[in-house]
Write a structure and sequence with these properties.
Elements lengths: L1 H7 L24 E3 L2 E3 L1 H16 L7 E4 L4 H14 L14 E7 L11 H11 L3 E6 L28 H10 L4 H22 L4 E3 L4 H13 L6 H5 L2 E4 L6 E4 L7 H10 L20 H15 L3 H9 L22 H8 L8 E2 L11 H13 L15 H7 L4 E2 L1
Parallel strand pairs: 3-4, 3-6, 4-5, 6-8, 9-10
Antiparallel strand pairs: 1-2, 7-8
Helix pairs in contact: 1-2, 3-9, 7-10, 7-11
Bound molecules: zinc ion (2 copies).
One zinc ion (ZN) binds next to helix 13.
């Protein structure tokens, strides 16, 4: 399969013009686009994209698939490629590798009002036309105890809000309680990811497909490093990594990892796929409003002048391997957690002498470095007492207690 990929994607330095003025691949058609330093006709380009997608999915085991669909360009491309991958071959009638595909949309319109109100109906119609099952969950459902799959026990939930606070008001309060837009983006991304994982558990899916393309992964590489989330970088950009929510093994896969953002746009244009959602928290704001937005503008701008930018970043980043890390997980984002004492060193606190009474559990000691930055952002705007009130139910009291057990006064 590697041969196919190398054959379909010419290396950037080989500016091969085997027959000038014609498609690099078939050498008979006039080219429709120039990408990766070569000219392609529409048909050869679509074949190349399908081959790269198939090549990646063939490396993954069989199972029940949950496809995460935001409605943005990359996820619409993912949906179409999956639909193509799953279609029964009319010649040999071979059955699809993944007969059970569930498409899940997380509705974030409460947090991002620019998103069109009828997006769920449009996505549902598009997905069902392709004979996939569809569900949509509102991101604020994460704040309602009944839908929190990971922390089922109400007693373990640390929330200092009145019982009658609605999930809607709790989500808005949570996002409003951080002062920087970068923290707000991080929180919303964590909530979206958590919602998708909860759906995968609820729908009994052991594979989750995300639509991150090569350009998005290059942006992620720089942005995660800048935000102190380097510990998850290797997993976040890998073709496949395993997560274990609630002792269930789920494989998280990014089959568009070798396809550039520009190629996604061409594919969508040629296949007449219309993205339903291009809005996010930074839509309409200045370029320097958040780390993610700034990084995105920087990488995309640089790539226009130097077209090897994305592939240089990703080729280097794909070599990164995560060091052995702790089994403890951050209560907010699930990233591996450093030891409490290590945290304390970074923070300049004398943790070994410090103890807490049950009931005064320090939330910072169960958060990873980057989430601690978010919590410091929370502290600026909230009374210390209600700090945890802005976090959803999965930041559990039981998990916190277990992780700092050695420092508690019985
Ligand atoms: Zn061609
Ligand atoms: Zn974290």
């Amino acid at each position: 399969m590697c041969d196919v990929q190398e054959e379909m994607i010419p290396k950037p330095k080989n500016n091969r013009s085997l027959k000038e003025g014609f498609c690099y691949k078939c050498k008979t058609e006039k080219p429709d686009l120039h990408v990766r330093n070569s000219d392609f006709c529409k048909s050869c380009f679509i074949d190349s994209t399908i081959h790269r997608f198939r090549n990646n999915l063939m490396k993954i085991q069989k199972g029940n698939v949950l496809l995460a669909l935001s409605g943005g360009p990359s996820s619409m491309c993912l949906l179409d490629l999956m639909s193509n991958f799953n279609s029964v071959d009319p010649v040999n009638k071979r059955q699809p590798k993944y007969p059970n595909v569930h498409v899940c949309h997380v509705d974030v319109s409460l947090a991002v009002p620019q998103i069109e109100t009828d997006i769920v109906d449009k996505l549902k119609a598009d997905v069902e036309r392709r004979n996939f099952a569809f569900s949509s969950v509102k991101v604020q459902e994460l704040f309602g105890n009944s839908t929190t799959v990971i922390a089922k026990d109400d007693k373990t939930i640390l929330l200092d809000v009145s019982e009658d606070a609605s999930p809607e008001s709790r989500l808005i309060k949570s996002l409003d309680s951080v002062s920087s837009l970068s923290s707000r983006e991080d929180l919303l991304n964590i909530y979206i990811k958590k919602s998708i994982i909860n759906q995968a558990i609820a729908k009994d899916c052991n594979i989750i497909l995300f639509g991150d393309n090569s350009t998005l992964l290059a942006i992620k590489t720089i942005a995660l490093s800048a935000k102190g989330r380097g510990v998850v970088l290797a997993d976040e950009i890998a073709l496949e990594h395993i997560i274990t929510p609630g002792d269930k093994n789920i494989s998280v896969v990014k089959p568009l990892r070798d396809i550039l953002g520009k190629e996604v746009a061409f594919y969508n244009q040629f296949k007449d796929l219309k993205p339903f959602n291009n809005a996010n928290l930074t839509t309409g704001l200045k370029k320097d409003c958040s780390i993610d937005r700034m990084t995105s503008d920087f990488i995309i701008g640089l790539d226009e002048e130097f077209p090897s930018t994305v592939s240089t970043i990703t080729r280097t980043a794909f070599k990164i391997k995560a060091k052995e890390h702790s089994n403890l997980a951050c209560s907010l984002c699930d990233a591996p957690l450093d030891e409490v004492s290590k945290f304390a060193e970074i923070m300049g606190e004398e943790v070994k002498k410090q103890t807490w009474k049950d009931g005064e559990l320090p939330i910072n000691h169960v958060l990873c470095y980057a989430c601690r930055n978010i919590s410091r952002d929370l502290k600026k705007t909230l009374e210390k007492k209600s700090l945890s009130g802005s976090l959803p139910g999965f930041v559990s009291r039981a998990a916190m207690k277990e992780q700092i057990q050695d420092y508690l006064i019985e």
